[in-house]
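A quick aside before the break. I want you to see a complete sequence-to-structure record at least once, exactly as it would be stored in a machine-readable document. Don't worry about memorizing anything.
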Amino acid sequence: MLSGVSRIAIRSGTRRVPMGLTHRFVSHTSANKSTVVPPSGIHNPGVIHAEQQHVPAPDDYLRNLSKNELFSLGMIGMCTINKPILDLVIKLFPYVPLFLVKIFVSPLYCGGDTPKEVIDTGKRLQKRGINNMMLSLTIEDAEGIKNIDINYIVEETIKSVHSILKPVMLEQLESGKDVNSIPPGYIALKPSALVANPAEVLLNFNKPEWKTQRDELINNCSRITQEVFNLNQELLAKYPDRKSPFFVSTIDAEKYDLQKNGVYELQRILFSKFNPASSPIVSCIGTWQLYLADSAADLAKDYERAKKEGYKLGLKLVRGAYIHSEPDRSVIYATKEETDANYNKVLTTAVNDLLANGEKSYYGHLVVASHNYESQMLATKLLAGQKQSVGKLNVTLAQLLGMADNITHDLITNHKVENIIKYVPWGPPLETKDYLLRRLQENGDAVRADNGLPLVKAVLKTALRM
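That is the input. The structure line, written in tokens, reads:
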């Protein structure tokens, strides 16, 4: 997941896990409680364990919603009561008229069609204590069949930094808020949206005969990240007390073979260019999917390489968005407990390093992108009592828009978390409909855990009290 948010490609060859195997793999948090039981052979030094952590009920959050929002959530709950119904919804969803999707579904999970609508979404989030967003323009072509103008996507993404993220940040900075109480604004870059025939380009990233396409992808990511870098330098000169980035370019993850062959190297190139060790803030982060069995080892190697070559990494940690479509199941942890242990171990290592070393940490910046309550509480407890340290201010908690809202509400209301954001997809209605379908396909288990019959009951109880 955000796993994030993270993850709006048209997936090629989405494959369902055979019946009988689904329960062995991780893609969601239990709706009732979340505990980490480290599997044999995995040692988690320094991890804080919260025993029998019960995921907060949605009741408190639902009381803040309008009747229209409650009605839409009730419909989502009915559509996700069990796996057969959800599977049927997924099959029928492409045939649902677009206007119905825009009325009942998109407002919950998407930021809007235009920059103004997304800014309005940002203002609504601020009223809930969520003071920034990770924007994702939902236009891409992972399968190379749409004939999309890549330059248009690059230009629109750059515009969104200036027309959405910058005004949202400036309004808060100029309001007199503590400059360090506002989390960064993030812009998600999907490699599969930024070059033609992206799967082949990433698979052949280091082959000389693919140099032209490789350079095009690097240049497109660099054009966007350069805008972020420039804005960071501009605002840092005006607000020198700021201890974290104002804006962050975020490289989203791809499937395992694309990640290993191309995305990791793309991230390294951008880190070395935009995250020099001499800078007090980073401008670019990459994504590690921690349901991959070799993810911790890959990250450890990247950390050592960053130290050697003099740049900072920047991390977004997700469990992973491709649980149902990875063709080689051996690359994924066999159990949910192993994945949870790996996530919490890597999370603990990164947070402790940031707290100990501040702006000298080679982790640079961390986004804990998860709907898992224990992981979010683990990060919260590790950061407790750190006040306004550089390390604490460079850790952001994140969830997808419209998902895990009970957890988001609990973190803000009961644990006074300020550095928290939502991953906000936005763009043309047809593209956002495609995004919603992909989200159902990739995160169906998480959607059912978040919704289903418990949500229907909670919505009815809340509606009757209004």
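Two observations worth writing down. Residues 211-238 form the longest helix (28 residues). DSSP finds 18 helices and ten strands in the chain. We'll return to this after the break.
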